[in-house]
Amino acid sequence: MIKKDRVRRPRRKICQGCVDHIENVDYKDIAMLRRFISERGKILPRRVTGICAKHQRKINLAIKRARAIALLPFSAD
C-alpha cells in the first residue's frame, strides 16, 4: 500500500495594517517602509509580506513617493 503525501498548507498571514488599524501610510515613516523592501531595494510582494491588497497599494504609493524625494533608494547598487 502506497501512502499519499500529505500537503502541508502554510498558515495564512494576517495583514499587519488591518491589525494596527492603519488608515494612511506616511511616506516619511522610513522605518516602517523598509520592512516592505528587500535588501536590493525591490518592493516585496503580498505573498511574502502577508498584507492585504488595500494596504499593499498604499505602501507601494508611499515607497514610490519616498524614493522620489530621496528618502529611500531606488536600488541597492
Automatic annotation (TrEMBL):
The keyword rRNA-binding applies. HAMAP family: Ribosomal_bS18. This is Small ribosomal subunit protein bS18. GO terms for cellular component: cytosolic small ribosomal subunit. One of its GO terms (biological process) is translation. It comes from the Bacteria. Binds as a heterodimer with protein bS6 to the central domain of the 16S rRNA, where it helps stabilize the platform of the 30S subunit. Belongs to the bacterial ribosomal protein bS18 family. It comes from Dialister invisus DSM 15470. GO terms for molecular function: small ribosomal subunit rRNA binding; structural constituent of ribosome. Part of the 30S ribosomal subunit. Forms a tight heterodimer with protein bS6. SUPFAM superfamilies: Ribosomal protein S18 (SSF46911). Keywords: Ribonucleoprotein, Ribosomal protein, RNA-binding, rRNA-binding.
